[in-house]
Structures are given as C-alpha cells and as structure tokens.
Amino acid sequence: MNRYQLILGVFMLFTLCNCTNDIEGDKVVFQHATLRPWFDNNCARCHSKGKNNYLHWLYNPNDFETSFSTHYANQIYKLVSEGRMPNDAILTDEEKQTLKTWYENGRPSR
Ligand code: HEC
Fold first, then answer.
1. For the whole model, what pTM was predicted?
2. Residue 52 and residue 74: Cα distance in Å, rounded?
3. CA of 87 to the centre of ligand 1 (A)
4. Atom of ligand 1 nearest to the CA of 99
5. Which atom of ligand 1 is nearest to the CA of 42?
6. Which one of 6, 38, 52, 102 is at 20 to 30 Å from 93 when CA atoms are compared?
7. Does residue 56's CB lie within 6 angstroms of at least one atom of ligand 1?
8. Where in the chain are the domains?
C-alpha cells in the first residue's frame, strides 16, 4: 500500500464512522432531555419556521448547530438572563437557571 492509498483509506474510514443516529442528513438534531422541551415550550411559538419572529432567530431543532451558533447562543444567554426573551411571559429564576447552566456547560445537543 502506498502513501496515497493509506491517506484515502483513513479518509474513507472517517467518512464511514460519521453516521451516528443523532445526525439527520448532515445536521445535528437537538435531543437534550431538559433543554429541548424548554425551548419548545418557551420559544417555538414565535421562533419556529413560519411563526412571527423566525426571521430574527430561527429555532430549528433539526439543525442544532445553526440554531445555537456561538452568535445566537450568546444572544440567547443574554436575552434570557436579562428577562427579555420570551417577551410574552416571565420565566422563574429556576427556568432561567436551567438555561444558564446548560450554556455554561458548553450547550450540549443531547
Ligand atoms: C411572543 C413571541 C416571542 C417569544 C415567545 C420569544 N421571542 Fe425572541 N423575539 C421576539 C421578537 C418580537 C423579536 C425581535 C424584536 C426584539 O429583538 O426584541 C425576537 C428576537 C429574538 C432574538 C434575536 C435578537 C436580535 O437582537 O436579533 C433572539 C436570539 C430571540 N428572540 C431568542 C428567543 C428565545 C431564546 C426565546 C425563548 C426563551 C424567545 N426568543 C421567545 C418574539 C418572541
């Protein structure tokens, strides 16, 4: 086996190993047991596709990495901590803390 065959072999191995069940197509699905329902309950009514405010921020649980990019995750942390989102309800301190703890732990998708 020459060097190029070896590189190709390693590359193909990586490609094959990349198919775990939390990836739909090439997108990571948001499956976190606590935070998925948290966002579904508190944010989806305005920020899912087709809702009034999805152009400001699209919450798409089937595309975790876009929905929670560094830019949006930082904004979400700030808006929720300051009580500015959701803007039609008041979260309890405990609900805010749930979001903050998740963010501070590196915002895992599951
Ligand atoms: C009742 C509707 C409503 C709900 C519920 C709601 N939002 Fe919003 N959101 C808005 C509106 C309106 C805007 C745009 C105006 C603004 O920035 O205040 C917005 C804007 C945003 C933005 C973009 C801000 C910017 O500066 O561009 C983010 C991020 C966001 N919301 C996150 C959230 C999160 C996270 C939740 C759930 C905790 C949530 N929103 C719940 C109505 C809502």
1. 0.84
2. 22
3. 7
4. 38
5. 37
6. 52
7. yes
8. 21-104
